[in-house]
Each structure stands twice: as structure tokens, then as C-alpha cells.
Amino acid sequence: MSARLRKFLYENGLTLVFLLLFALALVGQAIAGYHEFNSLQVQHSSSTISFGRYVTSSDFGASVMENWQSEYLQFTLFILLTVFLLQRGSPESKELGKGGVESDQAQRIGGHASPRSPRWARHGDVRTRLYSNSLVIVMTAIWVGSWFAQSITGWSEFNADRFGHEQDALSYGSYLGSAHFWQTTLQNWQSEFLAVASMAILAVYLRQRGSPESKPVGAPHDATGVEG
Amino acid sequence: MRPLSAAFVLALLCLSGCGTASSEHDARGSVQRFFAALSRHDGAAACHELSEETASAVEEDEMKPCGQAILSLGLAAAPVTDVQVYLDSAQAKLRGGGAVFLDETPKGWRIDAAGCKPQPGKPYDCELEA
Q: Structurally, how many domains does chain A consist of?
């Protein structure tokens, strides 16, 4: 392995490992889902489908998108709400008294930018305002996109099921107001919100040595905005 | 997202979420062949358009071979006014408000329920179903 590749792996290990885990889990989900789908098809004397058809089907799409949208919502809200909301003693929170978007000086934008600041942070105009919110904008776009995809794939699956029970299909608008759409949406949201709340409060009292998501092991419980 | 990526995602969503014109055409063809067979009193040809489960059900209900049983039901043929396909299920709406429901099987689209009349707030009431 070349020194350059080793350096790249070392400097990007967190992203690369999570992308690898994502790919493995997605492939595993596709294989397991494919076998389960065809098994149900056989039970119902319906046609089995190819792996390629399964991974482009609403069945697979809906199950992937349901989880994507809730994860992106979780992180979008976490990024946005931690601007304003604080948690005493939590490393996930800013220090008490620092809630809000903070001054230009603290954020090093416009005239307070350094030569190494990103170019759009230096302009001080609409580009800086846009760049100042770019993380939430992109995360929100992915959340909305995956939620929309969930709605389309879920609608298709739902109507196929209705035809199987000799019922008319629902329009897309009616599906968006249906119990099925909101049940599949909220069952994912509730777990994400619980996970964030747990993380915020447990990290006040518990530690993981060496993790930036935890305070240093010896930090007092009321130390806020300190990362280990 | 670049326009090309957005178009790709929409195409993918449509692939997975929308009924294709080919599926709608095939499902409509099955219903039309079914009614044409009934009109010429060709029970065997009509049964050929049924799913295996539905063909078995009509035989059990009427205690006759499918070809004879299907003709004794007195199902009325009607023109197909609309076909909707979601995944491997389809509904053909008929002039007069009736409907036929189909499943995609290894042999193609086959009728799962026919002679279906709408009931307010309830599933269709079908004379022929699995």
C-alpha cells in the first residue's frame, strides 16, 4: 500500500468505514428482502421476480426510504435545534449562554474570516448566508427527497395490496393522509427522537474514553460543551 | 442535485412505483380475452385467463370442471374503461361501474376476481374470486 493511500485511509477512516458498513448492510437487506419477497409470492401463488427487479421494486424502495428519511430528519433537526437549545452537562450541547447563531466574529465570517476560511464565508453577502446554512439545507433536501420517495413507493405497495383485497386504489393525495403513510413514517421518527434524547442526556453522566461524542472521563457532570 | 441525477431518481421511482404502459396493455388484454371467451361460450378459454387459485375456487364452488362452471356463473361482458397497475396487481374498471382484479403470475396477467360490483365503504362484491 502506497504512503499516499495509507494517508488517505487514515484521514478518512470514519467516513470510509461507515460507507462500507452502509454498503454491506444495504446488500444484506436486499438479499434477505429478495428471499422473503419471493417466499411470500410462492405462498400466494404469485410470480417470483429477479433480484434486479426486486431492488428496483416499491417493496425494497419503501423499506430503504422509510429509514433514510427518518435518519436524515434526525440529523437535520439535531443540527438545527442544537443552534438554539442547550443541555447542561452534555457534550452534544454548546456551553450555557451561547445559544443562537452567534456573532460574525465568533463564526469567522465576512470581515472576520481568515485567509484559510472557505471563499463563501469571506464574502459577507447572500453567499455567506447561504453557506452559513448549507449543512442544514443539504440535509433537509435529502430528508425531503427520501420522504417523497418513501411516499411514492409506499403508495404503490399500498395500492397493490388494496387491489389484492378487491378495493379501489387511493389517489396519491389521499395516501398522504392515510394511516398507513403516517404509521410507517412515525414509527421511524419516534425511535430517532428517542435516540437523540438518550444521547444528549446519557452523555451528561456517562463517558466513553477517547470519543469526541463524550466528555473526558474525568470531566465534571455539569461541564457543558466539552468534548473528550 | 443535478438535473440528470434528479431525472434518474424520478425514472427509478416511476420504475418501481408506476404501472408501465406494457403491463396495463397486457392486463387489459387478459380481461378482453376473458370476456370474448365468455361471449362465445368458450369456458376453457375463459378459464385460461384465470389465476390457478380462482380457477380452483370456481370448480369447488360449482362442483364442475372450470370450463363448465365459469359459464354457469352468468358473468356479463363489459368494455374496459380504465386499467391501473401497481406492482404485480391490477384493476380493470368496466363500463357500468364493475371491475376485474388481476395478478401478475409466471404465465402473465391472470384474473383473480371478476363480476365485482362496488359497495360504498366496503371492498367490491365479486361473483368470482379465489
A: 2
